[in-house]
Write a structure and sequence with these properties.
Jelly Rolls; 2 helices; elongated; about 15% helix; about 190 residues; three-stranded antiparallel beta sheet; alpha+beta
Length: about 190
């Protein structure tokens, strides 16, 4: 004897409604242009200002990547920190530097750099005007999987800090080295 569910509470109907609700919510966040004046800059504990173009922390959330604006005033150096996601940096104004795992990289407008996952880094501005850059990262995607981790090591200039966790170290030809890899080394 065949039965038909008419209450629309089957797993299929629940998931169908959940997807439809998500799509409607997402459509409300869509905006073709996000102007700089729409980005609210906030002071951070790292000594810089950050604003959200799109991302989980703003009013235009995304599930896979974000775009953040950063400002560093003259004479400011951020704290040393690292996170579980990669980020791309695009400098739009001013001059400054970023130290990644102990290597200092000077930058200016139009320059781009990659912040690898788990790399200790900090940025500073030795100039006389505010430096501005935009970052794009996969942090929201890692957040949805429960893998978004950030660590802050403070602001000690001569502080010696450990490298990336072994799981995230790179081996031959840049391939990730896993703990289970017998050739991983120490």
């Amino acid at each position: 004897m065949a039965t038909h569910t008419t209450t629309k509470v089957s797993h299929y109907h629940v998931q169908k409604k959940r997807r439809a609700d998500f799509i409607e919510e997402w459509r409300g966040y869509q905006k073709t242009i996000v102007a700089l004046e729409d980005v609210k800059m906030v002071e951070t504990e790292r000594g810089t200002r950050v604003g959200v173009y799109v991302g989980a922390d703003g009013d235009r959330p995304t599930r896979s990547m974000d775009a953040l604006a950063h400002e560093i005033d003259p004479g400011v150096t951020s704290t040393i920190h690292r996170h579980s996601w990669d980020a791309m940096v695009l400098v739009v104004a001013g001059h400054g530097w970023t130290e990644i795992d102990g290597e200092r990289i000077d930058w200016g407008p139009g320059d781009s750099l990659h912040l690898p996952a788990w790399a200790w880094h900090r940025s500073g501005n030795d100039g006389d005007v505010t430096a501005r850059y935009v970052t794009f990262s996969s942090e929201p995607l890692l957040e949805t999987m429960g893998m978004s981790i950030i660590e802050d090591a403070g602001s000690h200039a001569d502080q010696r800090i450990a490298g990336a966790p072994r799981l995230f170290r790179r081996g031959h030809r840049g391939r990730p080295v896993c703990k289970a890899d017998p050739q991983a080394g120490a």
